[in-house]
Amino acid sequence: MNKLINDILWNQFGASIDMLINVVSNCDDNYFQTHKRFYYITYHSIIFLDYYLSIPPSEFSPMLPFTQKELDDRPAEAIDDLIPDKIYTKQELLNYLDHNRQKCNQLIYSLNEGSLHDRFKEGDQPGDMDYPVLEIILYNLRHTQHHTAQLNILLRQDLDKHMEWSFRAGDLKTNYKD
Questions:
Q1: pTM confidence score
Q2: 133 CA to centre of own chain
Q3: How confident is the model over 56-76, as pLDDT tens digits?
Q4: Average pLDDT score, the chain
Q5: What's the structural domain count of the chain?
Q6: InterPro entries recorded for this chain (predicted)?
């Protein structure tokens, strides 16, 4: 694959992750601890960022474990059926985000003409994802940005706090490790 395409993918996906890191790291600790909807969106975003970077998905092994729960057993603030096994600290979530950022960078820069034929295939049941690797990367970028926007609007509405936009990976002053 052309290095220019790898660079473009990384610049944009990395920027999306940087914006997620930025909104989580700039969230007031008290707000983070008391507004569980913010917490559950953050956790969901991080878990699925990692999951969609796991090719094949059968190799997915979350750093911060969860349990799948039925609707009646989920906290009201949860946004899906993946419930964290405990309430992880903001720093644990940021460390996981840093791990995911590095994993994403490695995946993007490992792409070549041969690996573009790889697939993200969950299984053979109706509704299971079966996407080419490039499509799951773009899907993941959109998923990450969607939930980052939700977190941004919560901080804007509840705390009148504005987060910066990232044009390319690395242009925000976040705590990630390159």
A1: 0.94
A2: 16
A3: 999 999 999 999 999 999 999
A4: 95
A5: 1
A6: DinB-like, DinB/YfiT-like
